[in-house]
Amino acid sequence: MIIKNKKAMLLGFISSITAVVILTTSLQADNADRQDVQSSKLESYLKFTKIVQLVEEQYVDDINASDIINNALKGMLSNLDAHSSFMDAKETKELQVQTHGEFGGLGITVGMKDGALTVIAPLEGTPADEAGIKSGDIILKINEQATMGMTIDKAVSIMRGKPKTAIELTVVRKGEMKPLKIEIIRDIIEIQSVYSKKIGEDILYMRVTSFDQKVVQGLQKGISDNPKKKGIVLDLRNNPGGLLNQAIGVVDMFVKEGAIVSQKGKIPEENLVYNASEANTDMQTPLVILVNGGSASASEIVSGALQDHKRAIVVGNKTFGKGSVQVVMPISQTEALRLTIARYYLPSGRTIQAVGVTPDIEVSFGEIKKAEEGISIKEKDLQKHLESELEKVDGKKEKKDEKEDKTIITEEQLYKDAQLKSAVDILKALMITKQ
């Protein structure tokens, strides 16, 4: 019995020593890994300092360390992604003007797609829109300056300028044999973000051009002003996005529970989930959303979230695919860092970034051709019809020109927009099913 106990004690002692050795080895390995990381980091910093010193001392032109480091920071941030950037004093001031003040601009939102400066969307009613700039146009030159290798911030700063001054964009457009040169006159950009119109007696058409701070308010007003509506078409085509809280608010108008959108980043504090609330939610009215390649960011959150919740049918073309979160962090009194810190995810867990939202029903933009109708006379219309034809010949009665009602979308206008016509047809089917 004593011998057995001694054996047990010996085995326990050996096990303890083994555990201590394993733990010690593990700690040593962790410490070694940390030391390797710290050593590698130190070597990288020393390499950077050495290169800055060599450039400052031996580069053919005079250049100071501050300029070298600023250029290095710009290169480093631009290589992370298209939306991260280091902003020097001039660029930081321009951002403040863009955010808070008046400026002359073109009214386009641009992004990087496959390394090319691409028009996400022209804003409705702006100089770019009126000059004929289209979503998907690739900007080759701004005046005579090539955009290859140019950052988005740099391009935007060149396009912005004094109102009533001219600028020329050279663009490549799908379907065109050669680049197009388009002259645009800069102007103060004033945007109406929400337009409401009627289609027939019971369909409400609402177009959102960008997600500014009054979008939810504008949509709520459009809905309350049309109590007889039985269906809604929400047009987000060529909408480049905007404020996240407005996108969340729009989805919350039509969804009463569950996630609307989430964001995930490296820092735990940036991992957020935005949920719907039940208050003032319309779960009954059939809803169709229109999107295209110019629908980005907030537009993709709205269309993708409502698609995931099975609350809306999405019609049109695949969206742009901008689903990242940027913050501006001051690093001095005059300089700032714009950094991508997270990505957006839709309720189903899918990402928007570089993927976009695929419509439930894909429809290309274009005009629907109608066959010419022949003369069709019914018995009851014969006399009246002949009288009207005689009046046309004799000129006895002249019809007064009727002013176009901009609050109504006519059948003729519908046939000029195949995507909208498809959306309306789908909505009518949903309305019949609901009845």
TrEMBL record:
The UniProt record lists the keyword DNA damage: no
Keyword check for Oxidoreductase: no
Signal sequence, start to end: 1-29
PANTHER family found in the cross-reference section: CARBOXY-TERMINAL PROCESSING PROTEASE CTPA, TAIL-SPECIFIC PROTEASE
EC number: 3.4.21.102
GO MF annotation, one: serine-type endopeptidase activity
Stretches assigned to the PDZ domain: 92-160
Family: Belongs to the peptidase S41A family.
Domain of life of the organism encoding this protein: Bacteria
CDD domains reported in the protein's UniProt record: cpPDZ_CPP-like, Peptidase_S41_CPP
GO terms classed as biological process: proteolysis; signal transduction
Keyword vocabulary terms for this entry: Hydrolase, Protease, Serine protease, Signal
Native source organism of the sequence: uncultured Sulfurovum sp
Protein name, per record: Carboxyl-terminal protease (EC)
GO cellular component, one term: outer membrane-bounded periplasmic space
InterPro entries per UniProt: ClpP/crotonase-like_dom_sf, CtpA/B_N, PDZ, PDZ_6, PDZ_sf, Peptidase_S41A, Tail-specific_protease
